[in-house]
Amino acid sequence: MKYYLTTPIYYVNDQPHIGHAYTTVVADVLARYHRQQGRDVFFLTGTDEHGAKIATSASKQGMEPQAFCDLNAAKFKVAWQALDISYDKFIRTTDEYHERAVIKIFQDLYDRGYLEEREYTGLYCVGCEKFLTDKELVDGLCPDHKQPPTSVKEKNWFFKLSEFLPRVRDLIASDEIKILPITRKNEVLGLIKTNSLGDFSVSRQKSSVSWGVELPFDKNQVSYVWVDALSNYITAVGYNQDEAEFNKWWPADLHLMAQDILKFHAVYWPALLLALDLPLFKTEFVHGFFTIDGQKMSKTVGNVIDPIALVEKYGADATRYLLLSQFPFGQEADIKAELFDERYTADLANGYGNAVARVTNLIEKNDITVRWEAADKEWREKIATYYTDLRFDLVIKEAVARIKALDVYINDTKPWQQTDSAELTSVLSHCANELKTISETLFPFMPAKAAAVLDCLNNDKIKKGPNLFPRLS
Ligand code: ME8
After folding, report:
1. Closest protein CA for atom 29 of ligand 1
2. Cα separation, 411 vs 121, whole angstroms
3. Which of 10, 14, 268, 292 for a ligand 1 pocket mutation test, highest count of atoms within 8 Å of Cβ?
4. Number of CB atoms found within 10 A of residue 375's CB
5. CA 342 – CA 225 distance, rounded (Å)
6. pLDDT-based confidence at 58, cuts 50/70/90?
7. Exposure pattern of 429-451 as b/e (b: 16+ CB <10 Å)?
8. Which residues of 406-424 are buried (b: 16+ CB within 10 A; e: fewer)?
9. Fewest Cβ atoms nearer than 10 Å: which of 69, 304, 345, 388?
10. CA atoms of 204 and 323, how far apart (whole Å)
């Protein structure tokens, strides 16, 4: 069975931060879990590189847009490598095959009569890459970027979204396309109901924004970022290039993102797919935005966390674990940096790491040949339901409880006092089986550490395992 999942493609106007890392780690945990279950997985991530925001950032650095994109896209790749992200493909919207497909998409939308040229006047926030209404402004400024929007008056091509809205609404309401969690589904349905979603502009005049894909039917216009960006999900898997590949992977099983881009993914994207007469994605899961120590993450506040700094301190595996264990996936929450140290020490150094050291040490000392048991099916099924609901925090919680129970078992059975060798083999075999189940469960979160434990257990003569989680200095 195939499983195709995606992260948003991130803007390359800056380097990756902990917010990007969070969604990407979540996707990686899912990808690794589904591969572990024997599924054929395609995990896509990448970067969103066109538009005014990128062009402006590039010129501030005195760089050409393409060179600037190359530089920053590379930073995302470095971060994902540091976090041991096992993506199958990294798409960049400046990739030639993607640009070619975007041209085809525009031509199709045009030929099908879904694009219309209109005069547009509006307030545009470059930071958001979207038009804002007067109501959205706070003291005349964009509430997110604290910048005055630019007044834009130009001829643009519009996508006739209104023609598709009733169908999109029905598809969402009937769960034919699933928007999860349910609060987000209701939010989108509410948004559609307000009638505030009009036809939207899909191009910009070249004279005002030149960094984009030129429209095939109007050389004076370039594509506006969202059609270009959203279509990455199909162009990455062979759309307009390799039909067999495309039919194998599309529709996507899961698009992951945070609430900031819900409207584009839950309304614009299905409408575009309908317009192109393509199958619809199956599920979108929308997680909350988190704050850092109670504050919105921002350069001015100075609380932007660099994922590479976390990896340097805790290692890749622990960073992944710490990110996902802080709060239930989906909720809007606060990341408390000081909790990372606490959790690292309690769950990893004193918890999992210590259990591995204790058990493998006792097995080596007593020269035990472990009797392996059949897999714990009931446990696997329980974990599978957590994955269905994307409750990573519960997978972690259960694993931590099982580590604690193993610790209690060792304290109670006191293998170091045991003189009966059959009994000792039985007790330590139980411990080894427990470690195996726990490590298999933790593998998607901590692939290198869990694999090291599984390798160690896989030997005929088990030796004391590695020091998995050194104490923090
Ligand atoms: O929106 N909390 O790119 P982007 C949680 N290029 N997640 C966060 C976060 C936070 N504080 N900050 C960022 C774009 N994220 C477009 C997407 S897709 C076709 C185009 C994560 O660089 C989260 O996944 O602004 C969010 O949706 C994404 O980064 C936005 O990344």
Report:
1. 20
2. 73
3. 10
4. 12
5. 42
6. very high
7. bbbbbbbbbbbbbbbbbbbebbe
8. bbeebeebebeebeeeeeb
9. 388
10. 38
**Which residue has 């902990």 as its token pair?**
18
Identify whether the C-beta of residue 335 lies closer than 8 Å to the C-beta of residue 326. yes
Tokens encoding 340:
């990372």
Query: pTM score > 0.85 for this model?
Result: yes
Choose among 320, 315, 341, 340: nearest CA to 443: 320
Q: How far is the CA of 288 from the centre of ligand 1 (A)?
A: 10
Domain ranges of the chain: 337-458
Question: Which active-site residues does the annotation give?
Answer: 17, 20, 125, 128, 142, 145, 296, 299
Which pLDDT score is estimated for 278?
98
Query: CA–CA separation, 326 vs 344, rounded Å?
Result: 11
Which amino acid type is present at position 227? V
Ligand 1: residue whose CA is nearest its atom 3? 10
- Smallest Cα–Cα separation from 379: which of 439, 325, 324, 423? 439
> Please, what sign has the CA dihedral across residues 214, 219, 225, 228?
negative
pLDDT of 95: 98
Q: Which residues line ligand 1 (CB under 6 A)?
A: 8-11, 19-20, 22-23, 48, 229-230, 232, 257-258, 260-261, 289-290, 297
| pLDDT tens digits along 226-270 | 999 999 999 999 999 999 999 999 999 999 999 999 999 999 999
Q: Cβ(352)–Cβ(450) under 8 Å?
A: no
Ligand 1: residue whose CA is nearest its atom 26: 258
Pick the CATH number of 337-458 from 1.10.760.10, 2.60.40.10, 1.10.730.10, 3.40.50.150: 1.10.730.10
CA–centroid distance, residue 50 to ligand 1 (Å):
16
